[in-house]
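Risk mitigation, structural track. In case the binding assays with magnesium ion fail to produce interpretable data, a predicted complex structure has been prepared as a fallback.
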Amino acid sequence: MSENTVDPQQYIIKDEPYYESVGDEIALYEAAYNARMPMMLKGPTGCGKSRFVEHMAYKLGRPLITVACNEDMTASDLVGRFLLDADGTKWQDGPLTTAARIGAICYLDEVVEARQDTTVVIHPLTDHRRSLPLDKKGELVEAHADFQLVISYNPGYQSLMKDLKQSTKQRFGALDFDYPEETIEVAIVVKESGVDKETAEKLVQISHRARNLKGHGLDEGISTRLLVYAGQLISKGVEPQSACMMTMVTPLTDDPDMRDTLNAAVQTFFG
Ligand SMILES: Nc1ncnc2c1ncn2[C@@H]1O[C@H](COP(=O)(O)OP(=O)(O)O)[C@@H](O)[C@H]1O
Ligand SMILES: [Mg+2]
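Fallback model:
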């Protein structure tokens, strides 16, 4: 197999990822995809951004290549590099290059985690050029007509040290995400964890109390993901108070007072 032949089928999502719509985000994203507009999904951790992209890739029938960004990631990790093997050196495409070649949706998850010198490699793919220069290889990859770049961004982690430059931000259309409203979040917890509606409602109520503490001792509220975790433990027979402690209190904070406050909320509903 030649170095750059990748079967797009391997990145096609076979089963529909369950996604509960919270507004008009599906129609808006479809319009953005039709324009091949690079998109930024903004919102706190665990509120459904990744699930949304998976759902949309499935719906649009496009392969999805996801990259979890981190600060050790280099431009070569995205673009590709020469590798040494028995026959000498061989070019290996990185995930961004593969996505551009095969017309995938490339999802750079938590892109602020990457260093700015890494982030700039996406620039030529996000304007009229729609191309990716592989400098080390001396090749200019023209993006496939179906290629789209999507990034996720958590505004809560914004700091001067770690933020996207305006010159990067202003290359994207953006959609705001947040924890879903009550009835929708209850439906998600029921579907994803298998608990009954009444239990899901209690979990969501507890999260509402905790979310009010954001900025008053908590950096982030209890995410939808954590509610699903709590529900999954309860479904497995774990006693609700212990399940809530493990998933909705202990991961969030080490501050004893804050833990007391959260435990009190749990007691109110499951005491
Ligand atoms: N709108 C939604 N529809 C279905 N599941 C959701 C939704 N929002 C959150 N979830 C649940 O929460 C979990 C975390 O969502 P995820 O997309 O991974 O969050 P993010 O990428 O924003 O950190 C998912 O695995 C899913 O169980
Ligand atoms: Mg995610």
